[in-house]
Amino acid sequence: MNIAARAGTTLLAIAVFPLLLEAGGCASYDGYTLKPGQATSADVERVMGKPVETRKVRGQTLLYYSREPNGGAIFVARIGPDDRLIDIEDRLTDANVAKIVPNVTTAGQVRNLLGPPWETGHYAVGNNTVWTWYMNSDPSELDVRMSPDGVVREVFRLDPNDD
């Protein structure tokens, strides 16, 4: 193959590669191109990929997309009973963390609110479970400690810059 033919092949590959990524369903980070009221759950999965978790809450289907640990975000696509997208939002926010009330909020409510934790741990002393998320807003580590009855007992944030 001569130099001109190789250059033409290389240019063709460069031109076609982005189109293949789009056609192949390369996942969008936050689904920003999806239109509420128009997009269906199938559209959400085509654009954002397979959710890490799906939950049913008050007649809605919640599709969770984790971008942790380095992305520090968990996007939830809320799908209505008509299979249409209601909205997409990042759940790892200070406002959502403030909704978690020790001695009141349950593990299920935390899971519905924030989505699946990045890490889970069980501690024999005290028989507690700790769920961990990594937030980019500060950045910080968010830990939620629950007692065996599934009630949140403590919410704390660890700053990676503290000594």
Please provide a written account of the structure.
There is one protein chain. With 163 residues, this protein is of the alpha+beta class. The chain has two domains: 24-90, Beta-lactamase Inhibitory Protein, Chain:B, domain 1, CATH 3.30.1450; 91-163, Beta-lactamase Inhibitory Protein, Chain:B, domain 1 (2-Layer Sandwich). Helices cover 25% and strands 31% of the residues. It contains four helices and eight strands, in the order H-H-E-E-E-E-H-H-E-E-E-E. The protein has helices spanning 3-23, 41-48, 94-97, 107-114, and strands at 53-57, 60-66, 74-79, 85-90, 119-123, 128-135, 140-146, 152-158. The strands form two sheets. A four-stranded antiparallel β-sheet has the order 1-2-3-4, covered by helices on one side. A four-stranded antiparallel β-sheet has the order 5-6-7-8, with no helix packed on it. The longest helix has 21 residues, at 3-23. The radius of gyration is 21 Å and the shape is globular.
User: Helix- and strand-based class?
Assistant: alpha+beta
Question: Any idea of the CATH class of the largest domain?
Answer: Alpha Beta
> Unreliable runs, pLDDT <50, ≥5 residues?
7-26
pLDDT average, as an integer? 84
CATH architecture of the largest domain: 2-Layer Sandwich
* Rg, nearest Å: 21 Å
What count of structural domains? Answer: 2
